[in-house]
Amino acid sequence: MKLNHVANRLATEHFETVVTMLAECLGFVELRRTERAIWLRQPGANVDLQFSRSPTANRDADKLRSQVSFLSDTPQADLERLADWARARGLEASVGAYSDREFYLDLPAALVDFVIEAMLPELAEYGVDT
User: Fold this and answer.
1) Which of 7, 35, 76, 108 is 20 to 30 A off residue 54, Cα-Cα?
2) InterPro entries, per this entry (predicted)?
3) With contact defined as beta carbons under 8 Å apart, do 53 and 64 qualify?
């Protein structure tokens, strides 16, 4: 088997806003769409994201441990830009830190079971040949 995609849930009422944010701000392209889900790919990436619409009213209290993670030379600043984009469209957004090298963005009303993480590229240097 070969890894193809990872799936997470977005609140139905903010589904299109988050999809638009990923497309406009991070260059994601739509691969496929159904009534309840979308598959996205960032050019140059080799794993896709699937987002499903979720009617869940209460959010996962431990969602900080589930991330869609990105590498960035300026992780906090990049997440702040995404937060500003989301706030300009009426979404509550907060940026927090796991450490001084890895940060996260939460959009509490939109992201059901995950946050968006950005970390320094050095954290993905595992010393393993793939």
Assistant:
1) 76
2) Glyas_Bleomycin-R_OHBP_Dase (IPR029068)
3) no
Of 53-62, 63-72, 119-128, the one with minimum mean pLDDT is: 53-62
CB 12 within 8 A of CB 113: no
The domain that holds 62 is classified in CATH as 3.10.180.10
Residue 129 lies in a domain: no
User: What count of other Cβ atoms lies within 10 Å of the Cβ of residue 85?
Assistant: 16
Residue 36 within any structural domain of the chain: yes
Q: What is the DSSP letter of 111?
A: B
Domain assignment of residue 35, given as a range: 5-124
- Residue pair 40/31 in contact (Cβ under 8 Å)? The answer is yes
Q: Please say if the pLDDT value at position 24 is more than 70.
A: yes
Number of structural domains found in the chain: 1
Place of tokens 């001084």: 100
111 forms bridges with which residues in the sheet?
10
Written as six digits, the tokens of 78 are: 């990049």
Q: Look up residue 31 and give its two tokens.
A: 């691969």
| Residue 5 contacts residue 49 (beta carbons within 8 Å) | yes
